[in-house]
Amino acid sequence: MGAWIEHLNFPPAFPWIVAEYCEGCSHCVTACVHGALQMCESSHDGVQLPWVLDISLCNGCGRCQQSCVLGGIQLTTYVGEAVKRMQDRSPLKVQLL
Ligand code: SF4
Ligand code: SF4
Q1: Closest ligand 2 atom, residue 73 Cα
Q2: What is the domain count for the chain?
Q3: Which candidate among 11, 16, 45, 60 keeps its CA 20 to 30 Å from the CA of 35?
Q4: What pLDDT shows up at residue 6?
Q5: Quick check: pTM over 0.90?
Q6: Would residue 97 count as lying in a domain?
Q7: What residues does 37 pair with on adjacent strands?
Q8: Domain enclosing residue 35, as ranges
Q9: Whose CA is nearest to atom 3 of ligand 2?
Q10: Which CATH number covers residue 13?
Q11: 51 three-state secondary structure
């Protein structure tokens, strides 16, 4: 893992967006009182996905996961991998089924 990632102060858990289960309702964005989540355009016209654009805003509270009845956003303790995925990929690169 790169040096940049070792110096960041990560939360204990981090969201993982499961694009195939997400219906774009934005309940998770509303539930995130820290403003870490935003709805973003995806690779499919008219489909939006929640995404963490500024990882420093996420404290791993899990409110986003609790707000989603579809399993479209789930917290993982593999924080380094989840942060890297969130930063390396944008919703525009997420392949939807
Ligand atoms: S992850 Fe769940 S709560 Fe968030 S926009 Fe998608 S379906 Fe809605
Ligand atoms: S874990 Fe908490 S702070 Fe992080 S995106 Fe979800 S609701 Fe927001």
Answers
A1: 6
A2: 1
A3: 45
A4: 53
A5: no
A6: no
A7: 52
A8: 3-90
A9: 58
A10: 3.30.70.20
A11: strand
